[in-house]
Amino acid sequence: MAVSQHPIIGTSLASLDVITAFIRKVNPSFNPEIARQFLTVGAKYGVRGDVAVAQSIHETNWFRFGGDVKPEQNNFAGIGATGGGVPGNSFPTIKDGVTAQIQHLFAYASQNPLPAGEALVDPRFALVARGIAPTWEDLAGRWAVPGYDRSKYASLQAALEAGETYGHSILKLYDGMTAAAPMPTVKPLIVIDAGHGGTDSGASGSGLLEKNLTLTLALQVRDRLVNGYAANVKLTRSTDVFVALSDRANLANGWGAAYFVSIHINAGGGEGFESYVYPGTSGGVTGQKRTIVHDTIVKYLSALKVVDRGKKEADFAVLRETGMSAVLLENLFIDNAADVSLLGDSGVLTNLANVIGDGVAKAMGLNPEIQPVIPAWKTEGVDWLYEKGLLTDPAWKDKLDEPLPLWAEAVILKRLYDLLSGTGRINTE
After folding, report:
1. How far are the Cα atoms of 117, 376, 388, 405, 416 from residue 380, in angstroms, in the given order?
2. Does residue 115 have a cis bond before it (omega within 30 degrees)?
3. CA–CA separation, 372 and 369 (whole Å)
4. Which residue has the higher pLDDT, 343 or 67?
5. Radius of gyration over every alpha carbon of the chain, rounded to an integer in angstroms
6. Distances 167 to 6, 159, 247, 268 between C-alpha atoms, Å
7. Secondary structure of residue 291 in the 3-state scheme
8. Could you give the CA distance from residue 326 to residue 263 in angstroms, rounded to a whole number?
9. Residue 35 pLDDT more than 90?
10. 33, 274, 330, 402: the active-site residue
11. pTM for this one?
């Protein structure tokens, strides 16, 4: 009999609110920071952090503990605890404890190296035969031994076929979590980061400030994504305020963002456009997304004779500290005369923002929203109502497919009656 397979590697679907509400039904004192770290760290490793929370529910009795492992150990999966009073490993912070668990799952499910910049926290990582358990069902007999009830089943295979193993227990908890609060379909969150701001003006030249240009672009990129693709977008800043680099990354991590786009203007004597990702990520998903964004932007800028400075890597804080794919765009040079002539052109900025938005949408697999086509006869009919004074509020011109309320119909009929009665005048008061 075939056994169902649910991969450990994947994207979390349950939100922070859904996870927290589910656990607090049993344990009202549950700390939501634990769930937030599972989602954030899980996204960094490509591990289903939401299902890993369910694993911890199973291991810790709904985070109430009570066994050999104590809450202060921040050990949410019993790493190193073998029973008989052995408490297992301890970790200094919630994040470290979650990271150790995610890394242990990553070791079982994948043969890839740790993500760039990540330090090894899991003390038992090297003991795992890499990639031996790519699914939650595979953890029985490995993470948990024997991983099934020997009093009910003669073998692990029999328990697997019956759907009653360690991995199945985790998945049943996860199913209960999602069933308890059905999740609406939400498009992946894109965070747009306008570089600098407030007391940090960034680069300057020819009367222009980087912080103003990046904010102008960020706002228009957001509008392009929201209006053109119905995208789910947040900004790290929407006004002229200072936001520290780590705070920008923390915002995106806390929001559970799927993509982070940092917008900057270059300086230092060069010219043209270039893009950056974190060192070591060019060959993966982050690099693939960057290529789409970069090439979309360059296609527009090349027509303006702008130099393509290439796809690069750099250890920028917003690329290093964000837990999702991230790209930093350096849009022209504020101290180059040719580039400044473009940066000072509002039309060019709008077009640049639009192609940035289009590139990000392509990278995220978003399709353009189809705008309804209003038939000419509808427009002509409504225009006639305005021409004759039967409609006077201009707001109705933007509501051609919406029904008029009864009072509006009555007003139109009364005005039409006045017109036809021979008074030659319509009272529009």
Report:
1. 62, 6, 12, 21, 17
2. no
3. 9
4. 343
5. 28
6. 9, 11, 37, 55
7. helix
8. 11
9. yes
10. 330
11. 0.51
Residue-by-residue DSSP string for 45-108: HTB-HHHHHHHHHHHHTTTT--SSS-GGG--SS-TT--BTTB-----SSHHHHHHHHHHHHHHH
Half-sphere exposure of 382 (CA within 13 A, CB side): 18
Greatest mean pLDDT range, 77-81, 182-186, 199-203: 199-203
User: Which CA distances in Å does 288 have to 327, 352, 356?
Assistant: 11, 21, 15
Could you tell me which residues are beta bridge partners of residue 326? 260
**Are 31 and 62 within 8 A, CB to CB?**
no
Q: What would the pLDDT profile of 305-328 be if each residue is shown by its tens digit?
A: 999 999 999 999 999 999 999 999
Helix (H, G, I), strand (E, B) or coil at 204: strand
In the predicted model, is pLDDT for residue 94 greater than 90?
Answer: yes
Tokens 């008989």 found at: 84
- The answer to whether residues 50 and 34 touch, using CB atoms and an 8 Å cutoff, is no
**Residue 15 clears pLDDT 60, i.e. is over it:** yes
Task: Give the residue among 169, 206, 182, 228 at the shortest CA–CA distance from 355.
Answer: 228
CA distances from 120 to 70, 116, 255 (A): 23, 11, 25
Please give the biggest Cα pair distance in the chain: 100
118 is catalytic: no
Beta strands in 230-296 (DSSP E): 232-235, 259-266, 273-277
* Choice between 120 and 145, residue whose per-residue pLDDT is larger: 120
Position 1 confidence tier, pLDDT thresholds 50, 70, 90: very low
What's the whole-number mean pLDDT along residues 402-423?
Answer: 74
The DSSP bridge partners found for residue 232 are 189
Phi (first) and psi of residue 304, to 5 degrees: -95, 10
- For residue 250, how many other CB atoms are within 10 A of its CB? 17
Position 130, amino acid: R
- Tokens 């693939």 belong to 288
Residue range 74-82: mean pLDDT, rounded: 89
Q: How far is CA 374 from CA 127, 164, 382, in A?
A: 65, 57, 12
DSSP structural state of residue 197: B
